[in-house]
């Protein structure tokens, strides 16, 4: 991963779909209707993948996209 090689901060943003499709039902449904748990789980999985690719955890910034 180039981010790991460069040693720069990495911002992980939560977004399902594309700007034109993210409001479609398949992108807005969360297990048991619990949005925060779904968003947190998806961000954690992405952060874990970044760490596995060599990005230091302290260089990862998460943006849940809520608010």
Characterise this structure.
- By secondary structure, this protein is an alpha+beta fold.
- About 40% of the residues lie in helices and about 10% in strands.
- The protein has three helices and two strands; from the N terminus they run αβααβ.
- It has a two-stranded parallel sheet with strand order 1-2.
- The protein is elongated and about 35 Å long.
- It starts with a helix and ends with a strand.
- The relative contact order is 0.29.
- The mean pLDDT is about 90.
Report the average pLDDT across residues. Answer: 88
Alpha-carbon distance between the two ends: 30 Å
| Percent strand | 5-15%
The assigned structural class equals alpha+beta
Topology order in helix (H) and strand (E) letters: HEHHE
Rg of Cα set: 13 Å
Number of helices: 3
Main attributes?
67 residues; alpha+beta; two-stranded parallel sheet; 3 helices; 2 strands; 40% helix
